[in-house]
Specification:
The protein is of the alpha/beta class. It has 9 helices and 7 strands, in the order βααααβαββαβαβαβα. A 7-stranded mixed beta sheet has the order 4-3-2-1-5-6-7, with helices on both faces. Strand 3 and strand 4 form a beta hairpin.
Length: 200
Amino acid sequence: MKIVCLDLEGVLVPEIWIAFAEATGIPEFRRTTRDEPDYDKLMRGRIALLEQHGLGLREIRDVISRIDPLPGAREFLDALRERTQVLILSDTFYEFAMPLMRKLGYPTLMCNSLVADASGRITGYRLRCPQSKLTTVKALQECGFETIAAGDSFNDLGMIRASKVGFLFRSTEKIKADNPDLRAFEDYDAFLGGILDALG
């Protein structure tokens, strides 16, 4: 049995924090897992910035409500789900993700949770499990699945490398250069073809 594990942001939808940076005019929010491999450091910095500028869940959700999937992402995902099981593994948060999941046809999503007070002030976050993408892929393999994984960031490399087949999609030049053995795609048609070839 085979299952495809996909990252969310940068692969199917725009980077939420980049959209938030553009909406707020605060460039520091543009930093993502493409730039910072240490997720805890990245999130602590984001939470501190939110606190500094008096921003919280309401403002982030307002931005997310206006985000659409990347052009062609819904069609790609629908075509892939016709052929195999697909699991979205993301470091985003359930408190953010549902409007985007609706626009993608409600694929199965595993991600993290935010800690917020009654006013919507974000005070922390809870990881679903340590190294959540890699841990999930390994658990699926223990259940008898062969995994095919794809993503665009540093935090996707673990699950990609642990899978039977792994791909990069619209990744950075640095990540592609540092991982020349990984097949990299830039458009959904070729990406779909690569995954279907791997499914056999």
